[in-house]
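User: quick one
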Amino acid sequence: AQSVTQLGSHVSVSEGALVLLRCNYSSSVPPYLFWYVQYPNQGLQLLLKYTSAATLVKGINGFEAEFKKSETSFHLTKPSAHMSDAAEYFCAVSVRFGNEKLTFGTGTRLTIIP
Amino acid sequence: GAVVSQHPSWVICKSGTSVKIECRSLDFQATTMFWYRQFPKQSLMLMATSNEGSKATYEQGVEKDKFLINHASLTLSTLTVTSAHPEDSSFYICSAREPGVADTQYFGPGTRLTVL
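Assistant: Done. Structure below.
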């Protein structure tokens, strides 16, 4: 079985500062990894995904994440935070050639300080 | 990009009644759809996997007779909450897998169910 741990349920950064949201995964087989964003009372929007190609993955809205197998991590970063980035972020894992189920982390609420 | 819609976006019903939620893939055919439940300020919990033309696969602890899932076409899956009770109040989100795109699920906007 696979699992995801998101460190920090709440993260606050100043506008213009670096955003770093942490995600560590556990999987007995090569994983697919995803970051989703959720705005209040909305569904989830895919930010980016890792599916065994390049380890540095670029997504929408200036976000990127790096897959580090040695550290079992897939941290999400953005060089300069914008007020519109305030939202809930979920890391998720699924298994290649598996049953397509996504296992989500508990989420990180990102607050941007003006 | 792939778009998934849900209807209704919110619903209020009386205890004991049934509520149907629709999930549609608008620009692609989805052989597999997923239904999630999200409690306030919590993560998503997978309830069931919906496969077109066959019975849904429910996660452990999810009552099949209470949460009826039908996936009658490649673009529509429905979740019916039968005999709803206040504890069923939650945010229900569906997702659909786009064929040929590695394990990527596209999510609907969610349905807020409130049972009085």
